[in-house]
Each structure stands twice: as C-alpha cells, then as structure tokens.
Amino acid sequence: MTFSSPRLRLVLILVVTLSILPVIAIISWFFTVQYKEAALIHLHHYAVTVAENVASAEADFIITENYASLQDSIISFQRRVHVESITVTTPDGTVIADTDPENLGDSLTVPIGGASWLPDQDNIQVDFKTGQAKTLLPIQVGNTTIGWCKIILDIGYVQDGLVSMKNKITAVTGIALFIISVLIFFFSAAVTRPLEDMMVVAEKVADGDFDQQAKVAGVFEIRRLAEVFNLMTNAVKEREHRLHQAQKMEAIGILSSSIAHEFGNPLMGISFLLGDLKRNPCLDEEHQRLLDLGLEECNRMKKLIRDLKCFYRPTSGQVTPVVLHGLIDNILLFQKSFLKSRKIEVVKAYGDDIPSVMAVEDQIKQVLVNLLLNAAESMDETGGTVTIGTETDAKTVSITIHDTGAGISRENQEDVFMPFFSTKPEVSGTGLGLSVSYGIVKNHKGEIKVASSPEQGTTFTLVLPVA
C-alpha cells in the first residue's frame, strides 16, 4: 500500500475551494445588488434634475410656440454629460423638439414601463441591457400641463463601473483562493507527513517488524492517532509473542508427553531390577550404597516423567465453582511451617466480593502452590515478604503473588514459562513447575503473567474467568 499525500492535499484544496466559492458568489451578488440600487438612485436624481431644468427653461418657448429656439435649447442641453437624447412634445404627445430632427412631428405613443423601476419611483426606467435610463416629466405652468419632456440618459459609465466592480471581485476572489490554496497546501503537508510516516510504519508492522514506532508529531489529533497506533502496535507485538510462545509450548508439550511415555516403561524395569539386586544378602555395604543411589535417581526420573506427562495437558478433573480465598487460606495453612522456617511473612490483600471461578480445584491449587513456593525460594536466608492479593472486574478474577526476592532479569522473563528453564540451582528443581502451571491456566481459558526487576522482587498475576 502506498500513501499519496499530494492526492489528499488536492482533495483538501478542492473541498475548501468548493466550500468557499458559494460564499464568495453570495458576497459578489450582494455587492452587485447594492451597487445597482445605488446606481438607480443616482440615475433617478440626475435624470429628474436634467428634466426639471429642461422643463423650466423651455416653458416660455412652448407658450410662445417658438419651436426653433426650443430646438436650439434642447441641443445645448444634450451636450451635458451622459445625456443621449431629449424629446419635447405637446400635451397630446406630438413631438415639437428633438435632438434628432427627423423625429419632429412624430407622436410619442410608447409608454414608459416594462423595465427596471425603482420601487418608489414611477417616472424613470433603467435598462442595464440597453445601457439606457429613460424619464418622462410634464412641463407645467401652475397646474396646467403644456407639454412633456422625455430624456434618455447613457448609463454606459454605470455599466463600466459594474463591470469594474465584478472584475475586482473576481481578482480578489482569485487572490483569496490562491492564498487559501497555499495555506491549505502547507497545512495539509503538516497533516499528511505524519500520516505518510505512519503508513510506512504500518507497512513494516504488517510485514512482521513489530519494533517500529510511529513518530508522534503534528497537530493534536495526529499526535493522538500516532500514540494510539503505537499502543496498538505494542499490543499486537505482545499478542504475537504470546501466540508464538503458546505454539512452542504446545509443540514441546506433545514432544514431552511422547518422550515421557517412551522412557517410563524402561525406567520401571530398571527400578524393579535394582530393587531385586538390593535384596541380595551377598552384597557388601558399598554396593548397597550404590544401589540406593541408583534407586534415588530412578525415583527422580519418575517424578520428572510424571511432570512431563502433566506438561501443557494437565490431567482432566471435575470442574466446580472454586472459592479462591478459602483455597488460598488452606494452602497457606499447609505451608505455614515451611514459610516460617524461611522467615517469610505472608500479607493478604484480598479484594471485597470476589466471585467464585469455575475450575478444577486441585489443578488451580497446584498452580498456586507452585507460585507460592517459587516466591519463597526466591528469597535468601534472611527471609522476606510474600503479598497475595485478589481483585475482580466482574468478568475475571486476578490473583497476584508478589515477593521481595532477588527478582528476574528482563532476558529471563521471556523464558520462565519454557520447559526445563529455571533460575534455581540444578539440584533444586526440574524447570517444569511454571510450564505445567502455564498449561493448566491456559486450559482454564485464563492467563498468567510475570513482572519483575532485579533486586525489586517478582509479581506473578493469575487471571481466571468468573463462574
């Protein structure tokens, strides 16, 4: 799997751009509407001002019917800025003066309407498509209408301003999008680089290299993701290690049972033979001592074979609810003299309301006795303390046995459950106690763990499912 950060960056840029464009479009529309409304107000004021000036200036010419002077007058008004045409009519609409002489004598029949009107004005028509603003005002003397004045303004400058405003908005939008894209690019790089590193680590972990750790860097969420990823990698590493250990234990267990079976019968024969020889009255004291030594070694071999048969596949028994506190108290009672002889103090740290567990009682007893004896033997002749604690999380019950002995080195902790491994002197044990215990606990769908530091003591934790 290959992680492509540029693709993610592009997606982020596109998403943010598509999110911002509608906002920019709304802002552009708002300013355009505001500009048009301001332009309409300006055009209305300007058109009405020109029309009123024309009407007041031309009234006398209309009354005296001096149409030639009237024509000259409106031509002079046309020279004003943005005035496109002026038309003066009689009250009935006959054109008597026009900036375009060809329109003289025509009738003004086209009413004003059907375009962009200001809501509160009825006498001006603005059409941004044609670029014209039209107004029609009466020419009055007192309350008498003596004619009409129609003025058409060129609003090209307004349109130019509108286009200029749109171009500015477009330019600002482009610059804003560019800046945002650059910021997103660098921000996304800060996000994607740790992700890319994490993906590289994930690929190596997938290939079996569980020592890889993701770099904790970047924003808070990415750092948290890296921390969780590392925790997950460590958990997978631990589970993988336990799986390998379990597989090795299973294979060695099968092999051990086979060896024990093959060695058992010949050893029994040798033991009987030595026993018969020992009963021979003709043997001197030295030969008797040698035969006793041989029988002792045979008995030791029998015990070793018996342990091998129990290894990983403990003998089946009846599963019943087991009250752990009572079981532990009984064990301590039977081992009281042994513990006292080694100057060992036992501290009970029992939890409240500890439920029973479904187990083969004698097998769990065997495990607890083995752990207790190991704890006692880890301490020297000056003695020490063994603390036995229990607790529950409603689904499982945990039993901890902590000693103040010499501890176990980190290298040896990985091997303590292996067959024939022992930190004791060779004459003190076979190295099968913890291996057998491991098998018993696994058969009970439980877990056994060890935590230790040299000269800091050792803690064995036994976890069993509740009944």
Total of DSSP H or I helical runs spanning 4+ residues: 10
Globular, elongated, flat, extended or rod-shaped: what is the shape? rod-shaped
> Low-confidence spans: pLDDT under 50, at least 5 residues?
110-121, 426-430
The helicity comes to 40-55%
What's the number of structural domains? 3
**CATH architecture assignment name of the largest domain:** 2-Layer Sandwich
Distance between the ends: 45 Å
Order of helices and strands: HHEEEEEHHHEHHEEHEEHHEE
Written description of the protein model:
The chain is α+β, with helices and mostly antiparallel strands and 467 residues long. It folds into three domains: 5-162, 2-Layer Sandwich (Beta-Lactamase); 220-309, Helix Hairpins, CATH 1.10.287; 315-465, Histidine kinase-like ATPase, C-terminal domain (Heat Shock Protein 90). The chain is 55% helix and 17% strand. The chain has helices at 5-63, 67-78, 156-206, 220-278, 285-310, 324-334, 336-341, 361-377, 410-413, 433-443; strands at 83-89, 95-98, 124-127, 132-141, 144-154, 320-322, 344-349, 357-359, 384-392, 396-403, 447-453, 457-465. The strands form three sheets. Strands 2-1-5-4-3 form a five-stranded antiparallel beta sheet. Strands 7-9-10-12-11 form a five-stranded mixed beta sheet. Strands 6-8 form a two-stranded antiparallel ribbon. Strand 9 (384-392) and strand 10 form a beta hairpin. The longest helix has 59 residues, at 5-63. Mean pLDDT is 77; it is low at 110-121 and 426-430.
